[in-house]
Design a protein that fits this description.
The complex is a heterodimer of chains A (226) and B (613). Chain A has 226 residues and is α+β, with helices and mostly antiparallel strands. Chain A is built from seven helices and seven strands. In chain A, a hairpin with an 8-residue loop joins strand 2 and strand 3. The longest helix of chain A is centred in the middle third of the chain and has 29 residues. Chain B has 613 residues and is α+β, with helices and mostly antiparallel strands. Chain B is built from eight helices and 29 strands. Classes of the chains: A alpha+beta (226), B alpha+beta (613). At the A-B interface, helix 1, helix 2, helix 3, helix 4 and helix 6 of A face helix 3 and helix 4 of B.
């Protein structure tokens, strides 16, 4: 098999992989628009916790959606919660949604591999090999950066009830350390029975009842439902 | 000294009254004013308090009343005073002020608009003072009140310095009943100097709620003397039935005079307002003042009609219960809150009524008490019971009951709460509702503050994602880049040998070309020299070298047999050349010119094959 044939085989394999994944049947799922509309409905119903939760979920699917970002900030400010501006790092690496970024990473891996392999096979078209490798590395870097940005958000939770007590121990009768307002976003560190160990933006930690908190990314249930 | 001056002044005033006509009073001159001289004295000394009226006598002139100071009237005088060149008739009252304790006293002004006067009373020097009493008579107690009628229920201590009064609203109570009591401790100004502790009840059959260290403080005139009265309100509970005698006692410190009063009375007879030892020095003494005994009948709780869930609560109570939130999810904790409101012994109000909540997962309840009055007899006790529903649906918490004994009605009562209904739904946090479901529920809360200024909903549903977790973190998706990476790794390894070969080939060829050129040069040199053995040796060596490179063999292994086996008939000339080389080497066989040419052609042919790209 000649080198041209090997390169063509790799490209065909990459195309088949991408097309197979793109063509995979989509089960009952979520869309950014549906979550956005749901969050708006919760906000109109006077439930800032569920509204913020669904805005956060929608922003996972569409990180650069200005409507989602605007409404999320408006609800948080209405709930007297602090809103932090997005940094340049976050803006750059969430320019595309995570799923598109995932495929970009796969394509980048393919380009990088093809470029490297082509360099091993032939010495001709050097600039094309370098360009392919650089583009592939950039796409992979975009995917990794997207993961770095979204990783904390994947482990965050939103307080759903007003005046949620944060307990010193994971038992219902534990002493309360402080109180979290509704719609506050906290970092979920670990779980114990029906309690979640959380860390606030101010760095304070404590246990919150699972009923008062919803993770931004819900763990899949045993039956496979989201 | 002073009496002379005052007598002279009196004479001048009398003459002036006769000579001068009364002048109009200036508008800015106060008509009534008071002075005190000197403003600072030592315990045992007296000061002179003078109140003067420049106007008509109709304006009242009364001596002030100050706790800790004794004002004794000395005399009243009339005189003329010159104010801004105008002679005004005036009336003055002179009183002797004798302190009963050291301190700084504020004496009210002569009129409400007048500033108060200040008298500083310093403690008496310890030793060697001029004011040290000269006699060494034994301490004399303060005078006992005589002739003054005291209110009922107040019996002064033996020395008249203080009293304790215990007030109980009823004389017949039940065991465990909480009875409000009031304890008054009256301390006569100047005689009782300090409290040495809280009052307490005599006997072990009663319990008294904690008394505060800061009771109510009032000043009251009793029997013509001023008393500072401290009042405590508390609750009394009796632990067993019977007839008991109850009293209260309070530890106090009183001051006892050490100089006989008769000496002071003698000094008073001379009219000296600045006699130092009116009461004389005094010493502190600790005493216990006990109130008069009160008889209290304590009845046992009746056994008849006692409910099985009665746990000793005596009083009047009502209960109410609620649960929050009214709707919850499976596994979510709810709080059942029971409120017991009323008056009585709340320490016997327990949470046993919550033990009958079945079909729920329960945790130990937590209680809190909110007092409704200062004594804590009235108030509200709240029990919070965490509950966890185990299944969805409409769940009901049965009515709760609480039994107590009502001492007013003299019978047992049972309070009941209403049953509670709770809607338990499946978990909401992990499921996604549709916007229409939420909008349907939003109708209950229109005009939310959170909805102000929101950007509108989307019309297009957009592409759907199976999960919120990014694809690059999903194991199924990770199979694709993993397979791709494995494929690249395999291709990398597969192309490794070829690359080595391809990379090394030009170098090898260059090396072979150089070696072939060198071998060919040697062969040509030997040919030109006519040395057959050397020529054939070089030719054989060149051929072995070229064939060894072609067949990837060692040069020594390229023999006639190897050449015959690999090349067959095509190698016949090479085999012949090898044979001629051996023959020339060992037998000195010479070659013909045509043999040189033929051998050179064979060598060139093989070397040129190796040099070709």
């Amino acid at each position: 098999m000649t080198s041209r044939a090997r390169l063509a085989l790799l490209l065909i394999m990459l195309t088949v992989l991408v097309s197979h994944a793109r063509a995979a049947p989509v089960q009952s799922g979520n869309s950014a628009a549906a979550l956005y509309n749901l969050a708006n409905s919760y906000a109109r119903a006077g439930k800032p916790g569920m509204a913020v939760l669904n805005y956060e979920r929608a922003s996972l699917l569409a990180p650069n959606d200005s409507d989602i970002d605007t409404n999320l900030r408006r609800v948080r400010s209405s709930a007297r919660l602090a809103t932090e501006p997005r940094g340049w790092f976050e803006r750059v690496f969430t320019i595309a949604n995570p799923n598109l970024t995932s495929w970009a990473g796969v394509i980048g891996l393919g380009l990088l591999g093809v470029g490297v392999l082509a360099g091993r096979i032939t010495s001709r078209h050097r600039w094309m090999r370098v360009a392919a490798g650089a583009l592939g590395a950039s796409l992979i870097g975009m995917t990794v950066g997207n993961g770095v940005v979204l990783w904390p958000k994947l482990h965050e939770g939103v307080v759903l009830t007003a005046e949620t007590p944060v307990l010193v121990s994971p038992v219902p009768m534990g002493d309360a350390l402080f109180v979290l307002p509704e719609a506050e976003t906290v970092r979920m560190l670990s779980e114990h029975e029906s309690f979640v160990l959380v860390r606030t933006r101010a760095g304070r930690t404590g246990w919150v009842s699972r009923a008062n908190l919803a993770p931004v990314v819900a763990q899949p249930a045993a039956d496979g439902s989201p | 000294m002073k009496p002379d001056c005052m007598s002279t002044g009196w004479l001048i005033a009398t003459v002036a009254t006769c000579v001068l006509a009364p002048a109009p009073v200036l508008a800015d001159v106060p008509l009534l004013y008071a002075t005190i001289e000197p403003p600072q004295i030592t315990m045992g000394q007296s000061a002179q308090y003078t109140i003067t009226n420049l106007g008509s006598e109709a304006q009242s002139m009364q001596l002030p009343v100050v706790a800790g100071l004794n004002f004794q009237f000395i005399r009243q005088s009339r005189q003329l005073e010159f104010v801004n060149g105008t002679a005004l008739p005036s009336v003055s009252i002179v009183a002797r002020v004798t302190p009963q304790m050291p301190g700084i006293f504020s004496i009210p002004g002569a009129t409400p608009q007048s500033p108060p006067l200040v008298l500083q009373v310093n403690p008496e020097p310890a030793l060697g003072s001029y004011f040290t009493p000269r006699n060494t008579a034994p301490p004399v107690k303060p005078p006992i009140f005589t002739g003054a009628k005291m209110p009922s229920g107040i019996h002064l201590a033996e020395d008249g310095s203080a009293y304790v009064r215990l007030s109980i609203p009823k004389r017949e109570v039940y065991v465990g009943e909480s009875v409000p009591v009031q304890i008054d401790v009256g301390m006569r100004s100047g005689f009782a100097s300090s409290r040495n502790g809280l009052p307490k009840l005599t006997g072990d059959d009663f319990t008294l709620n904690n008394l505060t260290f800061s009771p109510e403080r009032n000043e009251r005139m009793l029997g013509g003397e001023w008393f500072v009265v401290f009042t405590w309100h508390s609750d009394l509970a009796v632990v067993k039935s019977g007839i008991f005698s109850l009293s209260a006692q309070a530890p106090l410190t009183v001051r006892v005079r050490t100089q006989p009063r008769k000496d002071s009375l003698l000094d008073d007879a001379f009219g000296d307002p600045f006699l130092r030892n009116f009461f004389g020095p005094s010493v502190p003494k600790d005493i216990d003042v006990i109130s008069p005994a009160t008889e209290l009948t304590v009845l046992a709780l009746p056994a008849e009609g006692r409910p099985p869930d009665f746990h000793g609560a005596v009083g009047t109570f009502t209960i109410a219960s609620d649960i929050a939130p009214a709707a919850a999810e499976v596994g979510e904790p709810l709080t059942l809150r029971l409120r017991v409101t009323g008056s009585g012994n709340f320490d016997r109000v327990d949470s046993a009524m919550l033990d009958h909540v079945d079909n729920w997962k329960t945790y130990p309840p937590k209680s809190s008490y909110v007092p409704g009055d200062a004594e804590g007899r009235k108030g509200e006790k709240i029990f919070e019971q965490p509950l966890i529903a185990s299944k969805a649906g409409e769940q009901t918490i049965p009515a709760l009951t609480f039994s107590f004994f009502d001492p007013t009605a003299r019978r047992y009562e049972t309070a009941r709460s209403s049953p509670l209904s709770v809607h338990i739904s499946p978990s909401q946090a992990d499921s996604i509702l549709t916007a229409s479901q939420v909008s349907a529920g939003a109708s209950a809360a229109p005009g939310s503050t959170y909805a102000a200024g929101l950007r509108p909903d989307r019309v297009v549903a957009g592409t759907s994602a199976r999960s919120l977790v990014p694809l690059y973190l999903q194991p199924r998706f990770l199979a694709a880049p993993s397979l791709l990476a494995l494929a690249f790794a395999g291709a990398w390894l597969g192309t490794g040998r070829r690359k080595d070969h391809a990379v090394n080939m030009p170098l090898r060829r260059r090396r072979l070309s150089k070696a072939a050129n060198r071998a060919l040069a040697q062969v040509e040199a030997a040919s030109r020299g006519g040395d057959a053995a050397r020529f054939l040796g070089c030719a054989r060596s060149a051929l072995q070298q070229a064939l060894a490179a072609r067949w990837s063999l060692e040069q020594d292994r390229v023999t006639s047999t190897e050449v015959s086996s690999r090349m067959g008939s095509e190698g016949r000339d090479i085999v012949l050349l090898f044979a001629l080389a051996d023959e020339a080497k060992y037998s000195g066989h010479d070659l013909h010119t045509t043999d040189y040419d033929r051998c050179m052609r064979i060598v060139r042919q093989e070397l040129l094959v190796e040099k070709a790209p």
